[in-house]
Each structure stands twice: as C-alpha cells, then as structure tokens.
Amino acid sequence: MIRLFFLLFLSCFLCSGISAQDPPSTIQYKKQFGFDASVLINRFLNFSGSNPQSSPYQITYRKYGETSNKRYGLGFRIGLDIGDLEPTSQTSIQFRFGKERFKHFGKILPNNPGISRWRAFYGWDWISQLGIIHIGANDVTNFSMKFGPSPFFGLSFQINERLSISTEMAYDLGVTFSRISEQNTLRINGNFIPPVALYVGYDF
Length: 204
Known about the structure:
The radius of gyration is 20 Å and the shape is elongated. It has one domain. By secondary structure, it is mainly beta. A hairpin with a 2-residue loop joins strand 7 and strand 8. It has helices spanning 2-15, 38-45, and strands at residues 31-36, 59-63, 68-82, 87-109, 112-135, 140-158, 163-180, 183-193, 199-203. The chain starts with a helix and ends with a strand. The longest helix is centred in the N-terminal third of the chain and has 14 residues, at 2-15. It has two helices and nine strands.
C-alpha cells in the first residue's frame, strides 16, 4: 500500500507539467473509463517476489454530474489449482454501482480553468459478489453470494484534461449466502478494502 501511494505522488510530480503548453480549452467530458493498474505496476517494477494485492474491481466506469457522479465497477478472477489429489477451479465475479459526491481542491489545470488537479470523492456503492469453487475429482461445487452496501472514500489527481489517477478505500458490509458441502449458511459480515488499487481513468 505504501508503495502505491509513493507511485501516486511520484506520478503527480512528474506529470504536473504535461499540459502546460496545450492551448486553452473549456471542454467538460461527461464519462470516464478506468482500470486498476496496480498489479501491472508492481510486476513491472518488481518490488518483491510476493503476489501483489489488487482491488476487487479491475474495470470502472463513471458518468459525471453537476453535484454527484454515477459509478460502476466490474471485477473477475479465474484460477485453477492442479494438486496431487484433485484439480480445483475457483471463479469469482464482483459488481458494484453507486453514487459519489466530490470536492475539488488544489491548483487549477493550466489549460482548463474548470478543472482542479485534486479531487476527493466519497459515497455509497451497492455491491454484488458471486464465488464458485469446483472440486473436479468429487464433482463437488461450492458457491457463495453476497449483496450489501459499501461506503468509500478516495482521492484523484488530474494529469491533464482526459487522464487521471486515483485510489480509494471502502468497507463492504453485506449478507452472504453460502452452500458448502451440501450445507447452507446465511451470515452478515464486513470486509475492509484498503487503498491498494491505482486506477487510471480516461475521460471522454
């Protein structure tokens, strides 16, 4: 996590002058597409031999509004473990949708007086998660489903009119239904999502 914050602020420093020579513009884009680049950055820079953490959501989408934004996130993982006894496959899908409010602060972009460099955002998401584990030798399938609210807070740095980088933290609170070894369970649980993601966003 510390490494990602270091990369975030280093990128802000290096990119602060990218748009200084661009002609003046007042274009306000209405949408944003983003992706979590933290895993690629960690592997490229090879900080350690351990597997890097990442956000549950690899792809994000925003629709900008005057006072709040609509936001969506999609994540997925597929894994296969071929052990000595039996192969096991794991599949998970995560989806979120919600609204965020925001506060601009800091210096204004030199080529666009309507955009500040920094933006704090916060709000609530509704999350939906599905996990499936299939044990091949015994033909056993276990699965779990979770649904509930997720408050979040994040910071974003605007590199230029279109590009930005951001990170955020959240707390997933939901109801989880599980079916494991033919037994059904229903429970309420919470999960803190630390700011390990480094999202790259593109406005259009």
